[in-house]
Amino acid sequence: MEDHPLHTIQKNDKEFFDILENTQNSALSEGNIPVKYKLLMAMALDAGQGATDGVRSLALQAMEEGATKEEIMETFRIANYICGIGSAYTAASALKDII
Questions:
Q1: CA distances from 17 to 6, 9, 13, 36, 38 (A)
Q2: CA 50, CA 56: separation in Å to the nearest integer?
Q3: pLDDT digits (tens, 9 = 90+) for 2-11
Q4: Is residue 40 pLDDT above 80, yes or no?
Q5: Are 81 and 93 in contact (CB under 8 A)?
Q6: Mean per-residue pLDDT for 56-74?
Q7: Which residues does 9 contact at the CB level (< 8 Å), separation at least 6?
Q8: Which domains occur in the chain, in start order?
């Protein structure tokens, strides 16, 4: 299994890593917005930032939460509308062997 993407921080500054992990858990926990939709929103934001690994990880998590291929692709339409064509290239690269 791959190392956690923040492994270096975890190894060298456990307190900071815990803060980051708590923030993630708070943002992506079940609440008024279902987790599937939170993951899709995060995935769109990562696409807009060019974070290919993040898009891939979030897409897999969203699918585990029940997101369909169609929902994932529609999410990228929104990312493209707001963030531009770079998000589509990021999405295509991230998803090439997933969907």
A1: 8, 6, 6, 24, 21
A2: 11
A3: 577 889 999 9
A4: yes
A5: no
A6: 98
A7: 16, 17, 20
A8: 32-95 (1.20.1290.10)
